[in-house]
Amino acid sequence: MTTTVAAVSANFTRDLEQNYELIARLVSEARTEGVRLLALPEAAIGGYLSSLGNHGDTLKNTTRSLPPAVRLDGPEIRRVQEIAQDMIVCIGFCELDDDGETRYNAAVCLDGTTIYGSYRKVHQPLGENMSYSAGDVYEAFDTPVGRVGLQICYDKAFPEAARSLAMDGAEIIVSMSAWPVARTATAENLQEDRWTYRFNLFDMARALDNQVFWLASNQSGSFGSLRYVGNAKVVDPGGNVLATTLLDSGLAVAEIDVEGTFRAMRGGMFHLRDRRPDVYRTGEGAASVDAVADPAQEDLVHA
Per the database record, which ranges form the CN hydrolase domain (predicted)? Predict the structure, then answer.
């Protein structure tokens, strides 16, 4: 059985009404394509931070430019459910914890009647921890289109993140991003920018590493000082890009056969079965990278 899925490249700002209008338009377009699972970007409700690094948005220097913080059970998420109806939608937002103060860069997977799962971003780049607290768990969950896992942006640079979801049975990993171009020596052709290259390479590698379908959504255009690389895509368990938006805004739409593809891909190569965790160095037994890391290094991968 095949399922049509799509990943979005689009620009979201602080204007919530603009966000909802755009979400509704994208859902409507996806519906005409027969899409059952739609991946919207990180921070699609309220936009991402307007800058990063030493001059990034923080709770200490401003509250005016921070995304609005909403609760998972709040009216903002319910409005997305009303738009989604029978479509399964994954979307990023700034989550306000029950204490009314703690904020997370978060994502949720839902349709009109059900919240299937949610996630709080674990890996934080370039001072993002000044605006958000970090999550601490990766868990996959069941949906009508298969078992799904969520990631946000910089998570894709860490093989352990996707592997954790794959080991929890994820068949589809949705990676939502607000991934910009390089902050220094930016390429004239943004498709050739080194951060665009890394974004695309991580997507293909993580899909192939774990033999999963990979939906990568991303912001497009610009917001504040950040220019985004777009390149939303659908990748199969062999690392093959089935559809991509490149730098453009829009939908990357592909038809996938989870059961049939897994039977073929995982019937020939056994990346998960053949793991050797008994010889992998982790925790206290692993060499520390702190001594060689340069905290002032400019050329870091964001998202």
Answer: 3-258
Count CA within 13 A, CB hemisphere, residue 37: 31
Determine if the pTM surpasses 0.85: yes
Q: What are residue 199's phi and psi, to 5 degrees?
A: -55, -50
Cβ contacts of 226 within 8 Å, gap of 6 or more: 48, 49, 50, 51, 52, 178, 180
Instruction: Provide CB contacts within 8 A for 96, sequence distance 6+.
Output: 69, 70, 71, 74, 102, 103
User: Over its length of 303 residues, how does the chain's per-residue pLDDT go in tens digits?
Assistant: 999 999 999 999 999 999 999 999 999 999 999 999 999 999 999 999 988 865 555 554 445 578 999 999 999 999 999 999 999 999 999 999 999 999 999 999 999 999 999 999 999 998 899 999 999 999 999 999 999 999 999 999 999 999 999 999 999 999 999 999 998 999 999 999 999 999 999 999 999 999 999 999 999 999 999 999 999 999 999 999 999 999 999 999 999 999 999 999 888 899 999 999 999 987 665 555 554 444 444 454 444
Give 19's strand partners.
none
Radius of gyration of the chain (CA): 18
> Cα torsion for 170, 173, 174, 177, to the nearest 10°?
130
- Residue of 250, 153, 147 lying closest to 206 (CA atoms): 153
Provide the sign of the torsion angle of the four alpha carbons 48, 51, 54, 58, taken in this order: negative
Q: What is the CATH number of domain 3-273?
A: 3.60.110.10
* Cα 254–chain centre separation: 18
Rounded CA-CA distance 109/92 in Å is 9
**Domain spans, the chain:** 3-273
